[in-house]
# Entry
Amino acid sequence: MTRKLLTGLSSQAYEHPFDRKALASLQNMPGVSLLLKKINEYGIDRLLRLQSLGSEIRISPRNFPQLHQAFVETCQILDVAPLPELYLFRGTGNIQTYIVGVEKPLVGINLDAMEWLDADELLYIFGHEVARIKSQHMVYHQMAIVMPTLKNLLSSTTLGVGGLVAGGMELGLYNWRMMARFTADRAAMLACQDIDVATTTLMKLAGLPDEYLTTPVIEDFLVQAREFASNNFDSVDKITKILSYTEPGLSWVVMRAGELLKWVDSGAYDNLIQQTNLKTSEEPEEKEGKTPEEKEGKTPEEKEGWNFLTSW
# Structure
């Protein structure tokens, strides 16, 4: 399959509205800038990089050529340069990937992902990670990574930001991190350029190996994903929702698949992939006779459910 190189691609072209709103809310929370400053002072970025450099195997064209080639192709398709370093780690028995490093990002992938995913599916999984670089949100993503470690410190006066967790910053951070997955899944779809590949990758993330991915299983998964995306869960308390997807063992692949299918079904993916010049994504001209939603700057997706926390 020959995939289109999306030269000049901007993350704003595929950014999920829930991601945009959640990030704006996070950035407006008191104390966030101070926390970022303190994380920088303590050298968290360097520490996270050193953990990978000192304990994981760096991937090269020589030692793991298929893995390296898929990573290179992903970065070429999504127009991400320079090429980040890629590392292989053992993991805990399921597909795992990560990205760290604000100034000099590196991507990690575990042995299970390398063994479970084929060359096309690797494009999806890598696209999901390098999307963080495209969006230039690595600093917030990295803050979410270290938040569990800093939680106790945040409640004291050691860092000068006592009470921020109780004030909602941690929940706001986890809310944004979940919403950012929707944007990353769209970038992953642009990398593999095949909804069938995206679907099987997400199913493998849910724990299903190849031998179980039969046509009936895949078809039923798609039905389930579309049903989830179309339902409202207003009876679930807001905090319960947030805490449910901060659980480390939950990947929420059905929810993520549902949101991705909505984007593809809407035609937005096809419109983007067929553009001949991605560098000229200017702001649209003002139109006469705008609808109330357009006057508020809302996209059709936002009109359907601007606030994710009250719509699922």
Remarks:
- The chain has a mean pLDDT of 82.
- The longest helix spans residues 169-192.
